Amino acid sequence: MYLYFRAMRICVAPIGCFVVGCTTTPLPASDPNPPLVTWTVQQVGSNVVQTFGPSAGPIPIVYGQKYNIGFQADNPGGVKQMTLDGTGMFNCASQPSSTGSNGVWPFKLPASLPHQQADFTPDSQNLVETRESLVMPSFDNSSLSCGHHGPTNDEFFAIGGALTLQGTASNYYGKTATGQLQLTSP
Asked: What is the pLDDT of residues 114-165, one digit of tens each?
């Protein structure tokens, strides 16, 4: 799964047991409990990982810095599906022109991340993983496009604002948990 911003490609990937270490269990006959969801935020180059509950924010991030952002789901009966979306309002500026000047849009503009979804299935022995993750490695909010605007139809990019990430995680019997993380930069 990939998100395209500017000229860079950002991967949003489901991370399974081979990376994060988890357990498997036989698919239960029923599971009345939704998954427990959490978020992690780590500035690239730092060993500090901040962990948050289902709803967190605003979490300040530094404009132009890269962050690894994770959305995790744990459920003793297995995790079947996860989704991730993001929307926000931003102060936006265009790229410098050949003369070196750029424009700042006079009011905030919306920007969003494409919808991401990961579906998980039992293995050949009907075992399911009890922990799944979606990870946005090296996320940089300055790469968020605010669209093309103005008389010259220049593309504008976020230079500050708030991004709200919304995630869902479901078990194999339709019980769903939601999480929300708000990231802000001045």
From this structure: 999 999 999 999 999 999 999 998 898 888 999 998 888 889 999 999 999 9
> For the chain, how long is the longest CA-to-CA vector?
66
Is residue 55 within 8 A of residue 6, CB to CB? The reply is no
Domain count, the chain: 1
Gap between the Cα atoms of 88 and 127, Å rounded: 38
**29 located within any domain:** no
Range of the domain at 115: 2-17+35-180
pLDDT in tens, 27-53: 999 999 999 999 999 999 988 899 999
Closest CA to 86 of 4, 178, 163: 163
CA distance readout (Å), 158 to 57, 142, 185:
19, 5, 10
**Alpha-carbon distance 166 to 164, whole Å?**
6
Residue 99, sorted as left (phi over 0), alpha (psi -120 to 50) or beta, turns out to be alpha
**Strands 109-119, 81-94: pairing kind:** antiparallel
